[in-house]
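Q: Two folds, back to back.
A: First:
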Amino acid sequence: MSSWSERSLIENISRVCSGSHKGLVKGIGDDCCEISKQGSWLISTDTLVDSIHFDRRWHPPALLGRKSVAVNLSDIAAMGGRPYFVLLSLCLPVDLDGEWINQFLDGAHEILQEFDTQLIGGDTVKGKELVITVTVFGQPQQCGSIYRNGASIGDSIWVSGVLGSAGAGLELLAAETKERMLDGMSRYQALINAHLNPLPRIEYGLDLAQSKMVTAMQDISDGLATDMAHICNASRVGASLEKNQIPFHSALPAAAMLLNRSIEDFILRSGEDYELLFTVKKECEKEFLRFMEEKGQTAHQIGMIRAGEGVFLQTESGEEEISFQGYEH
């Protein structure tokens, strides 16, 4: 017997996520929500399936609620925009515990509040497996959106933070769950948190758009090698990345050794870091760094855009192509 009903679930969602937001005319409760805002919209949607995109064995429901929203907010950040509204659709197994659902909703509501974003509707159905679909609506700033196709030869390549952490965190959790007890797991908590509770770089993306020096951008969801290739293909250019310039967390080397993996595998090929990958106009590097310092932000230059096609990694032993060596949906 199910511990929840669709009607009671919708009532609970309405209660947990009640509130008003500028531009919202009508929220949850009617056949449609209604919003009133002028200008263009940024719209993105993601579907997460149990045992494919997440694993309930180690992902607490509140953190999964946060992450389900965060990965969509990150898409808005990757365009240099600000999120406003979210739709949430859930396919829930009939035997799913009601308390699990409540904790999931609490987590989703928490991150919505953090980024001043309102849940305005969605759908709920019963099914054989847990499926979560989130759609986010945002808007660009007056300076416009940042697309993937604006990179030019001579532009520099940057990232907003450390890479490889989420992938390592996922493998640590999987290894621990398989009763392969790992020593000193607490030292890897930052890596585990990167997988369980990523934070979208909304304010960072807004700052990048305001700089008017960023030519192309996307978030790192499928791994640096693949996401850099997306920018190169869209912009019809190639890229050269410097291995020694790519930032990573201080705990990553020990985790990679413990998992019998290379640091390079994690920083290039594992996804879900949700840092921003972007290019800066040729010969604007010093001006860009000054701008970011004034905003209280740090940035890491990791390579250059070059002629041709493909993504290449520069190492001590030479050059290798790494295009599309990340996660494939």
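A: Second:
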Amino acid sequence: MNLREPSADQLLQEGKLLPVMEEFYTLQGEGFNTGQAAYFIRVGGCDVGCKWCDVKESWNSSDFPPVPTDGVIRNAVSYPARAIVVTGGEPLLYNMDYLCTELHLQQVRIFLETSGSQPFSGSWDWICLSPKRDAPPLEEMIKLADELKVIIHDETDFKWAEENAQRVSPACILYLQPEWSRRERMMPAIVAWIKANPQWRVSLQSHKYMHIP
């Protein structure tokens, strides 16, 4: 009896293929895990499309033909750091169950960076939620966040930050991060806000200051 090989669509649905834009080994530059060595897996495709996004080339998933997830896993675990960051684009546009299961078998920690706009999949050691107004996070994602990182582009974003802070769990760590192109303008306001509301911390894109990926 001949068994038909699974189609590319089926493998994509199962998470055994992923439209990976790029992979690289570097230091985590933002949020709670800043400064730690990690292997980054950037998945192509985004459902939000922020006008100030600094990786706009990741938006169109059709630019990144799906590759075997097993190869991505082999690449990730070949580096000495036992930390893997999955980012995008928006990773949760795809089924992350297979990637996470196989990576955890390799005794690594897995960190997700997401806008929270898509249903949950995968098994994560840390979830960084960066909510966007144009595609607000789902309630299930809000409750799972270990870290809330709100990008501050202008003064109206402080209200958006506080709205999301009211929805996350009490254990969630709160960060305000200036949008890179407006960092000089917005930093005094961020500092003032955190001094008045000390439950917040500041996050900087330190990798850009270090001139690393």
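Q: And?
A: Residues 54 and 180 are 8 Å apart (CA to CA).
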